[in-house]
Amino acid sequence: MVKIAYVDSSVLVKHYLESEIDSFQASRHITSYKVYASVIIQVEVLSALARKFQLKEILKEEVKEIKDIFILDCQRIGFIEVSDDVIKEAQRLVFSYSIKTLDALHLSSAILLRRIIEASFPLITADKKMIVVAESEGFEVIGVGIQ
């Protein structure tokens, strides 16, 4: 049986940027599962790359290489679309937990996936606030780089 997990962009950025602290841990977890994520990661990860380049933390060649690998990897990710159900759940989450918009979209996508497949799975994140909120919503959470 295939093990699945939901991942957010905080973990994917660590996975693709070897210079990030806990990159190895992120990669180890991601490669152990069939990964699901919100479709918004397709912009979030590239935005993080662009930001790292603008801050001169990575070279132009690295951006191109990582971008190409990420786009190829996206073919293997199960994407959750931003549907009306995801939006409604995200609205509930922002009022219940005072979390940021994109975090609410990620968590609501994971909640919707859990409803659809009627099974539990871990949510992998490197975001401390997301860990607390996801656990409150009944998820097993794998925290990357969280002490």
Write the SSE topology.
Layout: E1 4-7, H1 9-16, H2 23-30, E2 34-38, H3 41-54, H4 60-73, E3 78-80, H5 84-97, H6 101-117, E4 122-125, H7 128-136, E5 140-143
Helix pairs in contact: 1-2, 1-3, 3-4, 5-6
Structure report:
With 147 residues, the chain is α/β, with parallel strands linked by helices. The protein has a single domain, classed as 3-Layer(aba) Sandwich (Rossmann fold), CATH 3.40.50.1010. It is 57% helix and 14% strand. The chain is built from 7 helices and 5 strands. The chain has a 5-stranded parallel β-sheet. Helix 1 crosses helix 2 (23-30), helix 1 (9-16) crosses helix 3 (41-54) and helix 3 runs antiparallel to helix 4 (60-73). The longest helix is centred in the last third of the chain and has 17 residues, at 101-117. The mean pLDDT is 92.
Features:
single chain, 147 residues, alpha/beta, 7 helices, 5 strands, 57% helix, 14% strand
- The CA-CA distance between the termini, in Å, is 31 Å
Name the structural class: alpha/beta
Question: Spans of 5+ residues with little confidence (pLDDT < 50)?
Answer: none
Instruction: Write down how many β-strands occur, each being a DSSP E stretch of 2 or more residues.
Output: 5
Count the domains: 1
The CATH homologous superfamily is named 5'-nuclease
Molecular shape: globular
So what's the CATH class?
Alpha Beta
User: Mean pLDDT, rounded to whole units?
Assistant: 92
How do the strands line up in the largest sheet?
A: 3-2-1-4-5
- Second rung of CATH, namely the architecture: 3-Layer(aba) Sandwich
Secondary-structure element pattern, one letter each = EHHEHHEHHEHE
- Please indicate the percent range of residues in DSSP E strands (runs of 2 or more): 5-15%
Count every helix, treating DSSP H or I runs of 4 or more residues as helices. Answer: 7
